[in-house]
Specification:
7 helices, flat, mainly alpha
Length: 210
């Protein structure tokens, strides 16, 4: 969805047109499969011609170069000209790589930048003589003053705690659902046993009357 709506450019229009053609091919194929070639041959032959025509148009559209339909401004013209020799599939792959890179820069890249910028800034200080020197040095790794906790160590500790809490929450939810399922199964078995005992008691009374 992001790929087809990311910019109101001729490229996005071409993608939407290609998607419409693909949907038309799928629709015609389903109608053709639902129509008997023996009982309704005329209708089936008409659908087959429409399907072959739409499929050929879709394949041609998917492999054809992207050309600008309109030249609204210089930006769209430059953008479309740079893609004039690129197919829809290759452009979609490039767009996917761009989105992936942007997402990485906005998450991990930003985190690395913050850690590098505040590498010498202590998150908090450890009281003196609380831990041995080598432990204090490890907690200050890589560039924070000895005796302080660096942003790298603090970030790793927070990430570990969040991961453990998330795993514990998921495990608790799974166990709760399993417990509820066992409770429902036990209740159904009790109900079935009660019905069986009731049926058996009725049969005994009939035999006694006889």
């Amino acid at each position: 969805m992001l790929y087809t709506t990311y910019l109101p450019t001729p490229v996005s229009g071409s993608v939407q047109e290609s998607n419409s053609l693909r949907a038309e091919v799928v629709r015609l194929k389903r109608e053709m499969q639902a129509t008997s070639s023996q009982d309704e041959f005329a209708k089936w032959a008409k659908l087959r011609r429409q399907h072959d025509k739409a499929e050929a148009k879709y394949n041609e559209r998917a492999s054809a170069p992207i050309n600008p339909k309109t030249r609204q401004d210089d930006l769209e013209l430059t953008f479309s000209a740079s893609l004039s020799a690129t197919s829809l599939k290759s452009h979609r792959a490039s767009f996917t790589r761009l989105v992936t890179t942007t997402r990485w820069l906005g998450t991990n890249g930003l985190r690395f930048l913050i850690q590098w910028w505040f590498a010498k800034t202590p998150m908090f200080w450890i009281p003196k003589d609380w831990v041995p020197y080598y432990v204090a040095w490890l907690l200050s790794f890589p560039r924070a003053p000895v005796g302080a906790v660096s942003i790298q160590i603090w970030g790793s500790a927070c990430a570990t705690v969040v991961q453990m809490v998330g795993a514990a929450a998921v495990s608790g939810w799974v166990l709760l659902q399993e417990h509820r399922g066992e409770g429902r199964g036990r209740g159904e078995r009790v109900a079935m046993g009660a019905e069986g005992r009731t049926g058996g008691g009725g049969g005994g009374e009939e035999k006694k009357e006889l």
